[in-house]
Design brief:
heterodimer, A: about 140 residues, mainly beta, Cathepsin D, subunit A, domain 1, eight-stranded mixed sheet, three-stranded antiparallel sheet, B: about 100 residues, alpha+beta, 2 helices
Chain lengths: ~140, ~100
């Protein structure tokens, strides 16, 4: 299983590793979203913009810690849909965090609750972003 | 919880009609994302502090995500590949890990 991402130019001119996906909204609609592949993030966190559009009610709150200190997040039950290398679709169903304030997070973050299920490759020099799971694998060569 | 992480359930979509719809939506999303990639420098500079929505390979700007999407839907009601982003006011180095 392989999910391909890309190095995408962000608003500050920096290219960052992202995977495109969709988030399930309250009405069954799928809301397209970019996810930053953040190997340092413990949790997948939806941006304020995505949270506003999916319209789901929080089931609880959660405190998240980061460089800026602590932030109050909400927890929602939803699904994230990613696209396989075959064009197939995989649903990740569970509880995810969201930061409702727009300024708090400008892009949704794919954290280790998702990336930890795969081998996450974030290789700028090689222009590669992907999540690998069986039967796909990678090897490191010295040539 | 498993290893400190919430348990996620993975499911591969099998329904052919759901797959067809999802692939079509993704194709529209890809076209809109490619449009933003081509116009990134001008869009990001002009709309700091705003919400942008790209739909029908066109740009819509609002103060809130809902406003930007509503503007886009009024022009491109068929485009379910539209996406919304908030452009931060400040252009500073970022550390995202949360």
């Amino acid at each position: 299983m392989r999910f391909d991402g890309e190095w995408y130019p962000c608003d500050d001119g920096v290219v960052r590793p992202v995977v495109r996906g969709e988030v399930l909204a309250f009405d069954g609609e799928w809301v397209p979203a970019f996810f930053l592949v953040d190997t340092g993030a413990d949790r997948t966190v939806l941006s304020g913009a995505v949270f506003a559009l999916i319209g789901l009610s929080p089931i609880s709150t959660q405190t998240l810690g980061g460089v800026g200190g602590l932030a109050e997040a909400v927890v929602i039950d939803t699904q994230i849909r990613l696209t396989r290398e075959t064009g197939g679709k995989v649903l990740f169903h569970g509880q995810f965090s969201a930061l409702p304030a727009l300024e708090a997070l400008d892009i949704s973050v794919l954290g280790r609750d998702v990336t930890g299920l795969f081998a996450a490759i974030v290789d700028h020099a090689g222009d590669l972003v992907c999540l690998l799971g069986p039967p796909h694998r990678y090897d490191i060569r010295h040539e | 919880m498993k290893n400190g992480f919430p348990v996620l359930v993975l499911e591969e979509v099998q329904d052919p009609e759901a797959l067809r719809r999802a692939r079509a939506q993704r194709a529209r999303f890809d076209r809109n994302a490619a449009w933003l990639r081509r116009h990134a420098s001008e869009v990001y500079v002009r709309h700091r502090g705003k919400c942008i929505c790209v739909a029908g390979e066109d740009l819509f700007v609002g103060d809130t995500p809902a406003e930007a999407r509503a503007l886009a839907r009024s022009e491109h009601p068929e485009d379910d590949g539209m996406f919304v982003q908030y452009i931060p006011c400040e252009n500073v180095p970022r550390v995202y890990a949360v």
